[in-house]
Amino acid sequence: MGTPFDRIAKALMDALLGVCCEVRLEESLTLETLFADAVIDPLKDTTLLGERGLLGRMGCSACVIEAYAKVPTLWHLEQCMARAAMLRAKQQRKRVLWVISPGRPTMGIRHWRLKAQASWGSGVYLSPLASAPRVVVLSELPETRETLFLRLMGRGRVLSRALADHEKLPNNAWEIPLLAPVFARVASELPEMSGARGAQREVRMRFEEMKEAYDRKVAAIRQESEARGEARGEARGEARASLVVLRQVIAARGWALSAAHDALIERVTDVPTIQRWILRAMRATSLDEVLRDADGDVAG
């Protein structure tokens, strides 16, 4: 449901916040077709989440997050407010509204008298009123590691710089396994956008840029593996790079690999299979669920 941009923005939120929060994407609010992009409920100690950048801090308390591909109008923001109010009434729970915008929604900021908050850094606008929206302006965020996940929802120069920062990350950075399924989702969206025009054409160009950047990062991981003598030929090297990401995702989920699982994973050299497991690992409830088709894949 939604546009390709909607799906990738939600995937980014789910990738980072899903480790420590219950993330409900496209939460139905009424009997009619009315959805919130992401409804966030922290599940665990939020200490780790609070250390994982600006998006992590946003998810430390119950909230609704709405992401826009273009700068939202005052009417769009009013709609977000109505959805958030409806959800609060439905659940009888306090919940703040975060709006992510590629540029500054001037009318909305003026309407609710939002102010930049030093404690949140530049690009974040809040109000003392609990009922007012909180706005993140991607074009005004500092270009730091703390804002990377959010800037990957940007456009133009913001996205290009974010992708460059992603490529500069250490190959063992905690962001790499969380972003791997997002980039895989980007690649899967591209074939459906071959004839895109207008605004969707711009989104397709963003996705192409993201895929190229991720391919370069995977190549860097493969080269590092080859330098350590872990690869056996080009195909094996690509599989090894994907296995590194899979293991990182498994570790991020807190699962321990048994000797049997470890041996099974090591036998697989089919890259699409490994990438499929990476995607499953982000949402599965157990390691067995991730590797449920392993026997058939290995045999093939």
CATH class descriptor of the largest domain: Alpha Beta
CATH topology (fold) name of the largest domain? Trna Endonuclease, Chain: A, domain 1
Helix count, DSSP H or I runs of 4 or more residues: 14
The secondary-structure element order is HEEHHEHEHEEEHHHHHHHHH
Q: Which sheet architecture does the biggest sheet show?
A: 7 strands, mixed
Task: Describe, in plain words, how this protein is organized in 3D.
It is globular and about 60 Å long. α4 (74-91) links the parallel β3 and β4 (96-101). It has 14 helices and seven strands. α8 packs across α9. The longest helix has 30 residues, at 198-227. By secondary structure, it is of the alpha/beta class. The two termini are 34 Å apart. The protein folds into two domains: 4-153, Trna Endonuclease, Chain: A, domain 1 (3-Layer(aba) Sandwich); 169-300, no CATH class. It has a seven-stranded mixed β-sheet with strand order 1-2-3-4-7-6-5, sandwiched between helices. The protein has helices spanning 4-17, 47-50, 53-58, 74-91, 106-111, 148-151, 156-168, 175-189, 198-227, 233-252, 259-267, 271-281, 287-290, 294-299; strands at 21-28, 35-42, 63-67, 96-101, 115-116, 124-126, 134-137.
